[in-house]
DNA sequence: GAGTGTGAAGCAGTTCACAGCG
DNA sequence: CGCTGTGAACTGCTTCACACTC
């Protein structure tokens, strides 16, 4: 039942990433079938949660046996959009931007950083890996020429919003934000935030509670 | 009512980080009072959400006027544990670890990276900023000597779990994980994950849906 | 009057429990 | 017999609505 017609809860989608990671491990180890409980154990959830999550995608488990690792891997890749290559633009070639650029798993998963933008005159025209860094004034033309699907924001908070407004105006529909600010953008643009400070402060809160 | 006796929802705590950021902006701009609606607008939530969140901390808003920026800033700093300095150990001095080490806002917020561990013999004994990189075999003694409160994990997934087990055994109660794996650890240890791939794949899912 | 504080209602994600299939 | 798939119960966060106060 319930093929991929309906919306899938965001929390479930994020767990799919984890499941996929573990399935790939299992595949490498030559394991051919896996039960919900095993996946749960590995991913820090419960068996019921795993089954419920997977039920959003259809029902292809085998009762008494579990799920085919190969089949499930394929389904998850498909639903996560990992069967196509996504063209990514990186805004900001500072320390964080550079570390992201060189992060191997991105490319392995089909995310190709084809465009790098920075406004430091000393960087414009230099290369990061196989990509030439371009200036901010070239933003729109670069996004268009490179047929960008997705933008990673790694610029200082103060300039992030203005830049993202231009990115959205240029038709981009997915933004991954590393800048420590809450970006405001239209509802039809997908936004995910990766915030070092928020997570760290949440830990700090937990520690402060313990200490009392 | 409802002082800081009760547990505060995690979602609210994460929003506190955002509110605090904006309050600090307001403070710099010389704004002395702020209404829930203003904070909501800035942080991408609703006024009701802001008031509900703040009500977990007590009630010190002024009806008809809003909240005192200075007072609220102080309260949030306190509840987030930002009024003390936290001593942080960084595991892994690779590209991501190095970028994190140099990330200025950490220090500004009272998170001091006092310890850096890496198992690359070429790195051990060299310096990262003002800290000397130490080998993995010194992990326990380093955590103890440096009175570490919190550990940031920035090592490859394959070695993360084993290292964290030792960290937990050494008495650390808060872990920020950048490794692309789900760490398994006791319930009394606070864990937060910062995952590049999970967020990116969630965007990829959103894009794939759009495209259909 | 403007804006807080908060019970109550609404909604979403999680867990339970069990029928049903391989 | 083991393990899936799923409605039903539950839990917890969010939104609403309004009495209350500065």
Describe the structure.
Two copies of one chain form a homodimer. With 212 residues, chain A is an alpha/beta fold. Chain A folds into two domains: 10-79, Winged helix-like DNA-binding domain superfamily/Winged helix DNA-binding domain (Arc Repressor Mutant, subunit A, Orthogonal Bundle); 86-198, Rossmann fold (3-Layer(aba) Sandwich). In chain A, 45% of the residues lie in helices and 17% in strands. Chain A has helices spanning 10-28, 36-43, 47-55, 69-79, 95-101, 104-108, 139-145, 157-169, 196-211, and strands at residues 33-34, 67-68, 86-91, 111-117, 127-128, 131-134, 150-153, 174-177, 190-193. In chain A, strands 5-6-4-3-7-8-9 form a seven-stranded mixed beta sheet, with helices on both faces. Chain A has a two-stranded antiparallel ribbon with strand order 1-2. Chain A is globular and about 60 Å long. At the A-B interface, helix 1, helix 5, strand 8, strand 9 and helix 9 of A face helix 1, helix 5, strand 8, strand 9 and helix 9 of B. The first copy, chain A, binds a DNA duplex (22 and 22 nucleotides) through helix 3.
């Amino acid at each position: 039942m319930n093929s991929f017609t309906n919306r899938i809860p965001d929390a479930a989608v994020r767990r799919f990433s984890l499941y996929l990671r573990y399935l790939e491990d299992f595949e490498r180890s030559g394991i051919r079938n896996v039960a919900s409980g095993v996946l749960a154990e590995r991913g820090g959830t419960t068996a019921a949660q795993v089954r419920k999550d997977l039920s959003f995608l259809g029902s292809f488990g085998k009762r008494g046996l579990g799920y085919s690792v190969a089949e499930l891997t394929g389904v998850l890749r498909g639903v996560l959009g990992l069967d196509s290559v996504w063209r990514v633009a990186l805004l900001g070639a500072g320390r964080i931007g550079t570390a992201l650029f060189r992060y191997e798993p991105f490319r392995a998963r089909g995310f190709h950083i084809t465009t790098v933008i920075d406004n430091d005159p000393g960087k414009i025209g230099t290369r990061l890996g196989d990509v030439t860094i371009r200036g901010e004034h070239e933003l729109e033309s670069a996004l268009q020429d490179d047929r960008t699907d997705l933008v990673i924001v790694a610029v200082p908070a103060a300039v992030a919003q203005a830049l993202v407004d231009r990115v959205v105006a240029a038709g981009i529909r997915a933004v991954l934000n590393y800048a420590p600010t809450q970006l405001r953008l239209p509802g039809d643009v997908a936004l995910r935030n990766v915030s070092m400070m928020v997570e760290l402060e949440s830990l700090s809160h937990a520690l402060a509670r313990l200490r009392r």
